[in-house]
Amino acid sequence: QKEVEQDPGPLSVPEGAIVSLNCTYSNSAFQYFMWYRQYSRKGPELLMYTYSSGNKEDGRFTAQVDKSSKYISLFIRDSQPSDSATYLCAVGPAYSGAGSYQLTFGKGTKLSVIP
Amino acid sequence: DSGVTQTPKHLITATGQRVTLRCSPRSGDLSVYWYQQSLDQGLQFLIQYYNGEERAKGNILERFSAQQFPDLHSELNLSSLELGDSALYFCASSVAPSGRSIGELFFGEGSRLTVL
Chain-centre distance of CA A25, in angstroms? Predict the structure, then answer.
């Protein structure tokens, strides 16, 4: 079983739709949960992160973590064409010190928002 | 602009050859990470250096090696290249997190390697 599973899509939605992106993970030791966004021909950039179960909201984006079911979600409200990108979930254990910070990434879901 | 610089952006080479990818981290970041991204495997962690020392190893092949220099830039060396090594290679840098804050990874724009 892979440590992080993410449906690669692609996912195509009309502008204004609510988008739901999901990942499951297998290791209960993971404590950091992140979403990175990667535009075409660019490197991933951090979009949101959470440290525990629950919701975190940032504008049109909401990250949700359910540690009991090892399930993480990203919701995008009022989706815009500029949201078209690949979204990668990432999980990591507690910081272990000495500058070591390990993340395991999902394969990414490619999202297209159609005007 | 993440502040992480990678060169070259594109590289085309033949099987059996050797290439070197270079990364300059953000100013002040001590950790450098190398990732390989392919369509079928996604973003795979290869290796991490912290202030010149190897800190963690992931799915890095023996044909690949890396180092971090005193000025903190890093190089990833790929040798005896095979067709399957064609991928995007990303470098990322970070500072150590403090308390419960995370150590965000800042990625460069990647080096696209094509092995023919």
Answer: 12
Q: For B53-102, what is each residue's pLDDT tens digit?
A: 998 899 899 999 999 999 999 999 999 999 999 999 999 998 765 555 56
Separation of alpha carbons A79 and B29, rounded Å: 34
Whether A40 contacts chain B with CB within 8 A: no
Beta strands in chain B (DSSP E): 5-7, 10-13, 19-24, 31-38, 42-50, 53-57, 64-68, 74-78, 87-94, 106-107, 111-115
A31 and chain B: CB distance < 8 Å anywhere? no
Q: Which of A19, A38, A6, A34 is nearest to A77 (CA)?
A: A19
Q: 16-45 in B: which are within 8 Å (CB) of A?
A: 30-31, 35, 41-43, 45
> B87 to chain A, minimum CA–CA distance in Å?
12
Chain A nearest-CA distance from B73, in A, is 16
- List pLDDT tens digits, range A69-104: 999 999 999 999 999 999 999 998 766 565 566 788
Whether residue A102 contacts residue A4, with contact meaning beta carbons closer than 8 Å, is answered with no
CA atoms within 13 A on the CB side of B76: 31
- Chain A residues with CB inside 8 Å of B74's CB? none
d(CA B91, CA B23): 6
